[in-house]
Amino acid sequence: MASAVSGPDEVLLDHGSGAKLSHELISLIVDTLGDVYIGEMEDSAMLSIPAGRIAMTTDSFVVDPPFFGNGDIGKISVCGTVNDLAVVGARPLYLTLGLILETGLPIPRLVRVLTSIREVAREAGVQIVCGDTKVVRKGEADQIYINTAGVGVFEREPLRMRDVRAGDRVILSGPIGNHTVHLLSIREGLGFEQRVLSDCAPLNGLLDGLLSTVGAGAVHSVRDVTRGGLAAVLHEYAGSSGLTIRVEQDSLPVQFETVMATDMLGINAIHSANEGCLCLFVDPAAEEEVLAALRSHRYGAEAVTIGEVTQDAEPVVLMRGPDGRDSVVEELEGSELPRLC
What we know:
341 residues; 4-stranded mixed β-sheet; Phosphoribosyl-aminoimidazole Synthetase, Chain A, domain 2; globular; 29% helix; single chain; 2 domains; alpha+beta; CATH 3.30.1330.10; 7-stranded mixed β-sheet; disordered N terminus
């Protein structure tokens, strides 16, 4: 695609001036986004919402590194927002796109991000309806930061944390820890990035197919396992429900190379960030049906039950080891690693 920016081959402060170079940058963005951008240059998007109830979410993305083996910050920004809408049971429709660009960012790198946004938005079936661009001085950002907001509509009952109950099976849609290991391997030169890829993916198609297949009430709640990892999600549910969540160590889906990398780094995959993994709380009577539906989709092919919710003495997360003994999974006060996202 020919660049709509004439002259400069990198982002300049004047691209944020609101004058000619700004208009050229906006033209580049609009041309690259193509059919996923609604294309009306009003100060506000005017949207049709075909439902009486909507879901809305917002997120900011500061990924380090912003460009990696099988993705980039653009892909993550769409996936993260779409997934946040999908896990509450909404159908994602619209996204906003705010770009903070550092002076000196090569225009081809910006085009790469915008192309990722376009392709993932197409896959997820969402449209970019409005946006904003700001340019900051060298050293004030890590090449590019992205802010998004998403709007979805409810065509079924929402999925809520409060609906989790004792007896629920805990299911993961796929392996954990791969996104963290992939990014760390690139950043630190560990050599795992070819064998351990980021799991970044839009999961609304997987969830819609699942919820359309299984009976109403089979899936009680869903959360995407992102920053803070699986442990953070389980602690959030234990605290909210007042119930105990017990997971089986041997059942945790962790790729062999990911185990090698996390052992070498002295970290635990259950605390590691992911960008394409769901944690589902499911009625035990529907466990096998849910697993079959997840496994029929490419993003859920490795779905597995990892534990259950129980009515014990206190809200706690327990890990049952191979010897049958339970140990408490502690909630981290900070982070095991420097910032990834």
